[in-house]
Amino acid sequence: MSSLASVTQWHHEVDVLICGFGLAGASAAIEALEADPAARVMIIEKMPEHQAGGNTRASGQSLMISKNAQALKDYQRLMSESNPIPEDMLDTWATRMTQLEPWIQARADEAGARFIKGTGFSEREAVLEYPELGAQEAVAYTATILPIPAGVWLAFKANVDKRPVEVLYQTPLVELIQDPDSLEVFGAVVEQQGQRRHIKARRGVIIAVGGYEADLEMQRNYCGYQDVYPMGTPGNTGDGVRVLQKAGAELWHMRNKGQSGGIWPGIQHPSVNTVFLRNIFMQTFSWLEIAADNQRFYNETAELQLTHYKEKIHGHWVDTPHVSAQPVHMIFDEATREANCLVTKAFTWNIVEGLDWSDDNSAEVAQGLVLKAETLTELARKMGRDPAAVQATVSQYNADCAKGQDTRFGRHPATLQPITSGPFYAVRLVPALVCTSGGAKRNMEAEVLDPKGRPIPRLYEAGECGSMFSNLYQNGCYLTEAMITGRAAGRNVALSKPWA
Ligand SMILES: Cc1cc2nc3c(=O)[nH]c(=O)nc-3n(C[C@H](O)[C@H](O)[C@H](O)COP(=O)(O)OP(=O)(O)OC[C@H]3O[C@@H](n4cnc5c(N)ncnc54)[C@H](O)[C@@H]3O)c2cc1C
Prior knowledge:
By secondary structure, this protein is α/β, with parallel strands linked by helices. The protein folds into 2 domains: 2-256 and 435-494, FAD/NAD(P)-binding domain (3-Layer(bba) Sandwich), CATH 3.50.50.60; 263-433, Flavocytochrome C3, Chain A, domain 1 (Alpha-Beta Complex). The chain is 27% helix and 22% strand. The protein is built from 14 helices and 23 strands. It has helices at residues 23-35, 54-58, 69-79, 87-98, 101-110, 135-138, 151-161, 216-223, 239-246, 334-339, 362-367, 376-383, 387-403, 477-494; strands at residues 2-3, 12-19, 41-44, 63-65, 115-117, 141-145, 165-168, 173-178, 185-192, 195-207, 229-230, 251-252, 263-268, 275-277, 287-290, 310-313, 316-319, 328-332, 371-373, 424-433, 439-440, 447-449, 455-461. Strands 1, 2, 3, 7, 8, 9, 10, 22 and 23 form a 9-stranded mixed beta sheet that branches. Strands 11, 13, 14, 15, 18, 19 and 20 form a 7-stranded mixed beta sheet that branches. Helix 1 packs parallel to helix 7 (151-161) and helix 1 (23-35) packs parallel to helix 14 (477-494). The longest helix has 18 residues, at 477-494. It is elongated. It starts with a strand and ends in a 6-residue tail after the last helix. The relative contact order is 0.20. The structure holds flavin-adenine dinucleotide (FAD).
């Protein structure tokens, strides 16, 4: 931290300083001005304007709508059994969730956008992740704001743009300015064009800088993953965790039983450091995945997109082994190549980068991103694998298809289509992350807590950084949590008495 005494000049003076321009930051700004229309509100964002929006912008835009606070609370309690959420937090969160929909609708209306039931990119009205834990009772439906992609982000950005909010892009938060004894926060040190700048925050600072999906070192230290790749913004590098640690906060949810957002099959593109998501709605099934030992390693065609890529093993929901099975390749035939675009186009950061993928994968085959060979033996050589072992795995799978029974992982018989029609193809699959929830421990007023559970004066946190979720989570709850905690933080800071 920097002390007040070290500040020789304030480069900006505001009432409410919000760090990070994703959904939590946007919600905080909207609510701060609702609470006090005269407040001076500033957002600082690390990325340039065309790359702002964080994981919010890259996300599936699904919002969970609940009408039953008790059922929602019971459901979340069971999903968080391995690391319980304090009951008073669950209470407040569930109540606020059931009251949130009209506020979201108002944001869509203000932006001239359409709020709809459903995901916007599938036929489903509701994604019910864990029915045996109470999803049916807790989730009324899934909702979103059009267009797909990025409709929720576009509507919230439009709401912020209409208000007197000063946004400084390419301005990362570096550290907080604090009293070394009481830890009271007076402002922040930021960086602009390589220069340190001081921003005075008369009422408080809100940390809404997202997770650490794009920081491999943190992934290795906190989660034990050797190599994982973000599906979201490259800007989320865990800056909030470092700043909050230095500010005296207690950390939580750095790691749980698994990633609450799961580990998904990603496809790398050499031009960006985030990854595509392998198509979650494959229309043909003449394909399989093999691990480092050339064996299949899970039920590839289970509807894992409905459980954040968690499968039930020994009665517990755990991440699919995409991290421990590396290197992984997907092998498929001509029928699958022709009938499916290999990647999901409705979301991921690649939409922000304007990176496309051809519908029949022919462009990527031509580029060598997808390997092609006339025989499986030749394909195995191109993958750097043992041809006999690859051939044996495919033959075993084809024999299971003929029998109509997957003897290894119980693929649904309707998805047992043999890999027979050459040419044959392979693509490398890497473990891809949706989110991390680690950050500072906080309460539902978004106050950051110290190791003794006391709020650090004038320091607030919202969104995925320090999220209340760990282990299992229900689709649509991260975005709505960003709204709820962003609103609480914005309102509370705006209504605080200035320190000077
Ligand atoms: C592919 C994908 C799909 C998803 N789908 C869904 C879904 O359908 N429903 C759902 O509920 N959740 C979904 N999620 C999760 C959800 O998107 C996030 O949890 C949520 O958007 C977090 O919002 P946030 O405002 O906390 O952070 P973000 O939206 O990530 O915003 C953080 C911002 O802070 C900025 N920043 C970082 N460091 C600094 C710094 N030092 N100084 C200033 N700014 C900084 C970043 O550039 C970024 O703009 C998905 C995530 C991904 C990646």
